[in-house]
From TrEMBL:
This is Cupin 2 conserved barrel domain-containing protein. It comes from Lacrimispora algidixylanolytica. InterPro entries: RmlC-like_jellyroll, RmlC_Cupin_sf. SUPFAM superfamilies: RmlC-like cupins (SSF51182).
Amino acid sequence: MGESDLDKLELYHPEDSIYVEKKNGTRVNYFIFDEFEVHENVISPKSAQEWHMHRAIEEVLVVTSGEITIRWKDEGGIYRETASKDTVIRVRNSIHTIENRMDQEATFLVFRMVPEGKNKRDIIKNDKVIVP
């Protein structure tokens, strides 16, 4: 992508993604960019992902349909929360798994980035410029 392309709006469709059907009952469309990734997970009824963690990646999940159960390990215990549509989950570097205990599919978006450890809240909150 050339320097003049940096300000161009881009649209991506499922056929532009990397599509994976996993043995654990999850179907994923990965959209991978230079500095972040977005993917959509569809998790089958009565299925669960493997326990896992990420060393450098920060994940934020947004449930878009159905209901998922997220379990995580912390201080020697295992904790569980149920999340439904419009719930946002910040995973951080926890050891976690995602389950669908329901009888219908659940869908969630995952935003992945590699944080630099810098507080960018002011930029994020104040970066919008109204253009006539």
